[in-house]
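pinned: reference chain
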Amino acid sequence: MNKEVKRKNILVLCHQGFSFADDLISQAHECGFTATVLTSKIRADQSDRYHHLELKADFFFSTEQPALAHADIHLALNTLQSREVDTVACISVWEGYRLLMAETNATLGACDEQPERLALVLDKYRLRLALLNAHLSQTQTCLLTDQSLPTFQSRAVFIKPRWGLGSFAAFRWTGEPLKEKLAELSKQMATDVDYAGIFSAPYEFVAEDEICGHEYSFEVIAANGQPSILAVHEKLDLDLEHGSVLEKSCAAPPISLPDVDLRNGIEFIHATLKALSLRHGCYHIEARFNTATRKWEIIEINPRVGGAFIVQSTRWVSGHRSLRLWLESLVPSRTWQALGNENQLTTLESYCTAKGRSYFRVYFGTPGKQINKIATTQSAPQPHSFRQLVKEGELLPHSNREIFLGQALWLLGATAGQDTITELNEKSKTFFEVGYAN
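pinned: its C-alpha cells
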C-alpha cells in the first residue's frame, strides 16, 4: 500500500465493508488525498472485502464489532498521527455513522454540519415538532410508549422508529394489536446484525398522520449555507409490503410534477433547510406533494446520499458527482489552496437543470425465504447498470425491512417522455426474478 505521508488524508467510515467505500477512495484520490478506510467487522460471506479494501486504500483498519464506535475512530486517528499522516476530514454514507462523522470533523476542523443539528433531523419525533413550530408541516405526531399507546380511530396512522434507517419497522397501522407488534419489531431491531448500531434500547416509536400525495426525493449538497439541489426523483412504485415501505422504482427528473409545483418544491426545501439551520453537508430529503391541497410535506431528512442507484442517477441527470461534491464541501478552502486545486462547489446553482433522464428499479425479497433460483430476462429493455446482491441458496433475514435482491438502472436522453418511463416501469418488473425454496 502507498504510505505517502506528505499528502492530506481522508478518513472513510465503512459499515461492514461496503458503504460506497470504493467510490469514496477513488474520489479522495482524484482530489489529491490519501484515503484511509476504517470498517466494522465484515460478514463471513463477504470476507474477500478485507483484502480488496486493504489493497485499494492507502491505510486500512478494521474492528471485531459489527458497528463502529468513538473508540475505534480515536484509535485510527492516533495511529495515523503517529505515522505523520495529516487527516483533514472524515466521511461516511452510512447513516448510523453520520453523528460519528460530524463529531470527528469537528475535532479535525473540517466544514461539516454541527452534530446537534444532525441529531435533530435524525430524531423523527423532534424533527416533526421543529417543522410544526416553523409552520412547515401540518402533520401531527406523538411519541409511543407502553403507557401511551393510542386507540385506533379508523383513520390512517403511520408508525416508525424514532431513530431508524431503510424503512425498518415502518408501517401503516390499521388497528392490529399495537403492543405485541411493537414488541416483535423491537426484537428484530435488537438482533438484526446488518443494522447493528442503528437502534439501541429502549426502542421508541412515533405515530404520525399519514402523509398523502406523490412522493419525491431531493438530492442536496449544502456548503456555507448555500444549498444546491442536484436532482429530484419521483418514486413511481411505492408499496407497503412485508411490514415495511418498499421504494421499488424511481425516475428523475419527475414525470408527473408540473414545473410550477417543482419550483414550489425547491423553494420549500430551501425554506426547510434554512429553518432547521442546516448549512453544510449532503441530504437525501423525502417529501410528498398533495395535488388536492397544493402543499408539500417533509417525510424524512436523511443527512447522506440516497441509496440504490440515486448517486449514479443524480450524476447522469445533473452532470455532477454528489459524493465528490460532498467530499469537497468538507475540506477547508485553505487546504484546497495549499494543494493548488479548485473544487466544483462554486459552479453549482440552487437547482441544477436536468441534462438527461434516468430510471431505476429495485428488486426486493420476502423475509425469511431461501432463494433457489435467480434469473435475468431478455424480454425487458436491458439496463445500463445492474447489481445482483444475493446468490442462490441464500436465506434472507426474517426482518421487517428492505431486503435488497438486485438493482437496475436505465439512462435515457433528456427528450425521453413520460410514456417511455411508464412503459419501462412496467417492463422492468420482469427483468430480474427469483424463486424461493419454501
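why pinned: Residues 259-275 form the longest helix (17 residues). Confidence is low (pLDDT under 50) at residues 1-5.
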